[in-house]
Write a structure and sequence with these properties.
By secondary structure, the chain is α/β, with parallel strands linked by helices. Among the domains are: 242-340, ATP-grasp fold, B domain (D-amino Acid Aminotransferase, Chain A, domain 1); 378-513, Phosphohistidine domain (Glucose Oxidase, domain 1, 3-Layer(bba) Sandwich); 532-564 and 574-621 and 659-872, TIM Barrel (Alpha-Beta Barrel); 623-656. Helix content is 47%, strand content 17%. It contains 35 helices and 31 strands. The chain binds phosphoenolpyruvate and magnesium ion. The site of magnesium ion has 5 residues, from helix 31. Residues 422-503 form the PEP-utilising enzyme mobile domain. Its EC number is 2.7.9.1. Keywords: ATP-binding, Kinase, Magnesium, Metal-binding, Nucleotide-binding, Pyruvate, Transferase.
C-alpha cells in the first residue's frame, strides 16, 4: 500500500512534491527543533487519487488518517473529547508551489456544542471558547458547505451594530453564544444541513473540501497565470491548534526576514494581538508593525528574531514566516521563500551573494527573468506630478510601479471593461481570492483596508501589478460605486493614477515614463553576461528602439523589419504607386524614390549600431497591407495617383487575399517583383558604402530573405541580389563584406534545411510564422480561441508565447541538425517573439543556437534566461 500520510517528523524540505511546500517546510522546521505545533500531512498523491476517482474518499485513506490521529492524540496527550485536554486542529492546504489564499483552510476544527464548554472551563475564558466556535462555524460553512461568508459576516456586522460593539474581541460570551446559535440556523436555512457535531466527521469533510479546492475557479486561474501544472494536487496539513486569540498575551502575525518591497535587510512584518491567522491576511483589522512587538513582548520578539535569522541562513533565502503567540509562547506555523517585488528580488539576490549565502549562479537562478519587466515599469513624469491633484497620500505602497486607469469597483466590471479595450484600476475595500479575475486585468489595485501582507498586497506583488493598500482616507462604497476622499468624490469610470512605489493616488491621467535602472539590476546583468552562452540581439529598426536595446547591451540587431519603414504618409504613397500603377515608368520612379528613403533608413540603423551585427530582413508582408481599404481612402489615393477610382478599386480587388498571412508575401513578392528586393539590397549596400566613406564605419550587413520554402526561391534570389550588389560595388569601387541568409519560417524549410544551408550564410528561425504555419493558426486572430484551448487543456500554453517543443520545437531540432550536418559552424538564430521568452530561450540554448533576438525591453529578460539555461546545463 502506498503511504499517503506523513507525520511532520517523518518529512523534510526536499519532499515538496509529496508534502507540498507548507508540509515539507513544517517537517523541516520540526527537524530543526523549532517550536512547530505537531501534526501530519496528507500527500498530494492522495489528493489526485481523490480527484481522479470521482471524488471518492477511500476507506484505506480514512484508516491511515485515523492511525495518525491516534498517534497525535497519544503524543500530545489531547483528544477531541477529553474535558481536560481538548484537541483542536487546523486543516490547511499546501501545494508544491505556493498559491497564497487560493485554496481552503479550516481552523478550530473539532469543536462542538459539548466540548466548547470544556474549552471554556480549561481556559477559564468563555468568550474565547465561543469565539473559536463561531469562527469554526463560519469557515466550515464556507469551505465545506459552500455557504457564502457574507451570510456570517453580514450577521456579525449587524449584531455588533445593534449592540454597539466596535471590535470582535469586545463581544461577550453571552453575545457570542447568540451568534453561534444564529450561525447554526444559517446552515439550516441555506443548506438544510446541521453542522456536524462529530469531530471526525468534521475532519474528513474538511479534508475532502481542501482536496476539492484544488479545482476551484480562483485556484485554476492562479495556476494558469503562474504556469503551475493542474496535475500536482494539494497536500493537506493537519496540525494542533495554537491560539493567537486567547487574550492579550497572544497574537498572530506574518513577517519577512527582509523587506519584500525594497529588499532592505531588516525584519519586516505585522502582527495582531488577540487574533487568529486569517485576521491578518484578510486585512479586516489593520495590524501593527513587527517592531512594536519588541516593546510589547521583548522575549518573544528576541526569540522570533533569532529563529528568523536561523531560517534565512538555513534556506539561504529571504523567508516569509507565519507565527502565533499563545500566552507568550511563540510557535512557527509556516516558513517559505518570501514572494517579493522585482526590485527587492534583485537587491536580495545581490546582497545574498555578497554576504556569502549564495553563489553568483544561485543568485541568478533565484530570479524570475520575467520580473525584470516590473523593474523596468513606468513611473510618473515629475513635472506632470506637480500639476496633478491628489486623491490621497495615506495608502501603503504595497506593490511598486505606476499606472492610470478608470475606476471599477468589482472584478466582473473590470474584466468587461478591459475586454472592450479600457484600462482599469480596481478599487475595493479589500480584495479576496474571488477577485483574482479582475485583479489580473487591472492596471492597478487600490484598497482602503488591510496591510502590506493583505490579500491585495500579496497577490499584486506576485503579479507585478501596482497596488496601494490600506488607504484609510478613502470611503469606498462598492454598492453605490462611489469613493469619497478628503477633497471630493469619484465614481465608476473616473480616471485615477496610482503610484504603488510610494502609495500616492492622483485624480485623472498623469503622464508616465520608464523608471531608471538600478545598481542591483546592473550587477545581475553583468553576472548574467558572464554565464550566458547565447548571444542576445534585438528586433528593432527605429533609432529610439535601437538605442534602448544598446543600452541593455544587445549584441546588435537580429531582425530589422523593413516594412515598418514604409508606413509614413510620404513613403506609403510611393509604395502604393509602385504596387498599384500599371505604367512601368511610374513604378520605376516610385521605386527610385523609395530607394533614397531606404538608403537614409539604413544609414540611421548602421550608424546607431556602429560595429554591431545587423540583420536586415527584406520586405515580407503581402502587398495588400499597403493599399487602402475604405472607400473614402481609395477615392483619396485615386486622386493622389491621378487615376480613376474604378481602375484603382479593380487593382485593389486583384490584390485582395482571403488568408492574408499566408499567400503572396515574403520572398514570393520578390520572385514576382524582383526589383523590390534589388532596390532594398541596393539601399543597404549604398548606405554601407556611404558610412564607410563619411564615417570610416565598417558595416557588415546581414541581408535576410523571409519565408523561403523551396531551394529554387533562395538560389534565384541569391543570384540576382549578389549580381546586383557586385555591380554596385564595382561601379563604386568599394568593398562591403555582407552576408546573405534566410529566415526559416515554414515547416517545409525545416525539412529541407540541409539543401537551403548550401545557399545561405545564416539561418534565423521566424518562430511567429513557423508556429502559425505548423498549427495552421492564423496569427492575426488565433487569440480568439487559444484561451479556450488552454482552458480545455488542449494546449498547455499559448504556442506563440512559449515554444511548443513537441511540434514546432521538433521542426527546429530537425532543421538545426540537418543544417549543421552540412555546415557544422552555420550561424543560426531566432528572431520570432519566442526569442524573448525564458522557457523558449532555454530550449534554443540547449539546441546550440548562436543567438536569440527579441524586442529591446526584453533583452535583459533574455540575458538572465540565457544565463540560467547555461548554469543549468553546466
Ligand atoms: C517570424 O515570423 O517569427 C518573424 C520574426 O517575422 P514576422 O513576425 O515579421 O513575420
Ligand atoms: Mg515571419
Amino acid at each position: 500500500m502506498t503511504k499517503r500520510v506523513y507525520r511532520f517528523k517523518e518529512g523534510n524540505a526536499e519532499m515538496k512534491e509529496i508534502l507540498g511546500g507548507k508540509g515539507a517546510n513544517l517537517a523541516e522546521m520540526t527537524r530543526l527543533g523549532l517550536p512547530v505545533p505537531d501534526g501530519f500531512t496528507i500527500s498530494t498523491e492522495a489528493c489526485m487519487d481523490y480527484l481522479n476517482n470521482g471524488q471518492a474518499f477511500t476507506s484505506e485513506l480514512k484508516k491511515e488518517i485515523e492511525t495518525y490521529l491516534e498517534q497525535l492524540e497519544l503524543s500530545s496527550g489531547k483528544s477531541f473529547d477529553d474535558p481536560e485536554n481538548i484537541m483542536l486542529l487546523s486543516v490547511r492546504s499546501g501545494a508544491k508551489f505556493s498559491m497564497p489564499g487560493m485554496m481552503d483552510t479550516v481552523l478550530n476544527l473539532g469543536l462542538n456544542d459539548e466540548n466548547v464548554k470544556h474549552l471554556a472551563t480549561i481556559t477559564q475564558d468563555e468568550s474565547f471558547a465561543y469565539d473559536c466556535y463561531r469562527r469554526l462555524l463560519q469557515m466550515f460553512g464556507d469551505v465545506v458547505f459552500g455557504i457564502d461568508t457574507s451570510h456570517f459576516e453580514g450577521y456579525l456586522d449587524f449584531y455588533k451594530q445593534k449592540h454597539s460593539v466596535l471590535v470582535d474581541s469586545d463581544l461577550t460570551a453571552e453575545q457570542l453564544k447568540e451568534i453561534v446559535t444564529e450561525y447554526k440556523r444559517i446552515y439550516l436555512e441555506i443548506k438544510k444541513l446541521e453542522f456536524p457535531q462529530d469531530p471526525r466527521e468534521q475532519l474528513f469533510a474538511a479534508v475532502e473540501a481542501v482536496f476539492s479546492s484544488w479545482n476551484n475557479e480562483r485556484a485554476k486561474i492562479y495556476r494558469q497565470l503562474h504556469r503551475i501544472p493542474d496535475n500536482l494536487g494539494t497536500a493537506v496539513n493537519i496540525q494542533l491548534m495554537v491560539f493567537g486569540n486567547s487574550g492579550n498575551q497572544s497574537g498572530t502575525g506574518v513577517a519577512f526576514t527582509r523587506n519584500p518591497s525594497t529588499g532592505e535587510n531588516k525584519l519586516f512584518g505585522e502582527y495582531l494581538i488577540n487574533a487568529q491567522g486569517e485576521d491578518v491576511v484578510a486585512g479586516i483589522r489593520t495590524p501593527l508593525p513587527i517592531a512594536n512587538l519588541k516593546e510589547a513582548m521583548p522575549e518573544v520578539y528576541q526569540q522570533f528574531v533569532e529563529m528568523s535569522e536561523l531560517l534565512e541562513k538555513h534556506y539561504r533565502d529571504m523567508q516569509d514566516i507565519e507565527f502565533t503567540i499563545e500566552n507568550k509562547k511563540l510557535y512557527l506555523l509556516q516558513t517559505r521563500n518570501g514572494k517579493r517585488t522585482a526590485h527587492s528580488a534583485f537587491k536580495i539576490a545581490v546582497d545574498l551573494v555578497e554576504e556569502g549565502l549564495k553563489t553568483k549562479e544561485e543568485g541568478i537562478m533565484s530570479l524570475d527573468p520575467q520580473s525584470v519587466n516590473q523593474l523596468l515599469h513606468p513611473v510618473f513624469v515629475e513635472e506632470a506630478l506637480k500639476e496633478a491633484d491628489l486623491v490621497s497620500k495615506a495608502g501603503l505602497p504595497a506593490s511598486p510601479g505606476s499606472a492610470t486607469g478608470r475606476i471599477c469597483f468589482d472584478a466582473a466590471t473590470a474584466k468587461e471593461w478591459v475586454d472592450r479595450g479600457e484600462k482599469v484600476v480596481l478599487v475595493r475595500q479589500e480584495t479576496s481570492p474571488e477577485d483574482i479575475g479582475g485583479m489580473v486585468v487591472s492596471e492597478a489595485i487600490v484598497t482602503s483596508r488591510g496591510g502590506m501582507t493583505s490579500h491585495a498586497a500579496v497577490v499584486a506583488r506576485g503579479m507585478g501589478t501596482c497596488c496601494v493598500a490600506g488607504c484609510s482616507e478613502l470611503e469606498i462604497d462598492e454598492f453605490l460605486k462611489v469613493v469619497k476622499y478628503p477633497n471630493g468624490t469619484l465614481t465608476e469610470g473616473d480616471v485615477i493614477s496610482v503610484d504603488g512605489t510610494n502609495g500616492d493616488i492622483y485624480v485623472g491621467h498623469v503622464e508616465l515614463t520608464l523608471s531608471e535602472k538600478n545598481e542591483y539590476f546592473e550587477q545581475i546583468m553583468a553576472w548574467s553576461k558572464e554565464f550566458a552562452r547565447l548571444e542576445i540581439r534585438m528586433n528593432a529598426e527605429t533609432e529610439n528602439d535601437i538605442k534602448t536595446g544598446i543600452a541593455f547591451d544587445a549584441n546588435g540587431i537580429g531582425l530589422a523589419r523593413t516594412e515598418h519603414m514604409f508606413f509614413a504618409p510620404e513613403r506609403l504613397i510611393e509604395m502604393r504607386r509602385f504596387i498599384l500603377s500599371d505604367s512601368t515608368l511610374a513604378r520605376k520612379e516610385a521605386l527610385e524614390t523609395i530607394l533614397e528613403y531606404q538608403i537614409e533608413d539604413f544609414k540611421t540603423i548602421f550608424s546607431t549600431t556602429q560595429e554591431k551585427a545587423v540583420v536586415v530582413r527584406l520586405l515580407d508582408p503581402p502587398l495588400h497591407e499597403f493599399v487602402p481599404s475604405k472607400q473614402a481612402d481609395v477615392e483619396r489615393v485615386a486622386k493622389e495617383m491621378d487615376i480613376r477610382y474604378e481602375v484603382l478599386q479593380q487593382r485593389i480587388n486583384e490584390l485582395h487575399e482571403i488568408n492574408p498571412m499566408l499567400g503572396h508575401r515574403g520572398c514570393r513578392l520578390a520572385i514576382t517583383y524582383p526589383e523590390l528586393y534589388l532596390m532594398q539590397a541596393e539601399a543597404i549596400i549604398r548606405s554601407a558604402i556611404s558610412l564607410q566613406r563619411e564615417m570610416k564605419l565598417d558595416v557588415n550587413p546581414e541581408i535576410m530573405i523571409p519565408l523561403v520554402g523551396m531551394t529554387g526561391e533562395l538560389t534565384i534570389l541569391k543570384e540576382k541580389i549578389n549580381q546586383h550588389i557586385q555591380h554596385i560595388l564595382e561601379e563604386e569601387k568599394a568593398t562591403i563584406a555582407y552576408t546573405l541568409g534566410t529566415m526559416i519560417e515554414l515547416p517545409r524549410a525545416c525539412l529541407i534545411a540541409d539543401e537551403l544551408v548550401k545557399d545561405a550564410d545564416f539561418f534565423s528561425f521566424g518562430t511567429n510564422d513557423l508556429t502559425q504555419m505548423t498549427y495552421g493558426f492564423s496569427r492575426d486572430d488565433a487569440a480568439k480561441y487559444i484561451n479556450q484551448y488552454i482552458t480545455d487543456g488542449i494546449l498547455p500554453v499559448d504556442p506563440f508565447q512559449t515554444i511548443d517543443e513537441e511540434g514546432v520545437g521538433e521542426l527546429i531540432r530537425i532543421a538545426v541538425k540537418k543544417a549543421r550536418t552540412i555546415k557544422p559552424k552555420m550561424k543560426i538564430g531566432v528572431c520570432g517573439e519566442l526569442g524573448g521568452d525564458p522557457e523558449s530561450i532555454a530550449f534554443f540554448d540547449k539546441l546550440g543556437l548562436d543567438y536569440v533576438s527579441c524586442s529591446p525591453y526584453r533583452v535583459p529578460v533574455a540575458y538572465i534566461a540565457a544565463a540560467q539555461s547555461a548554469i543549468q546545463s553546466k
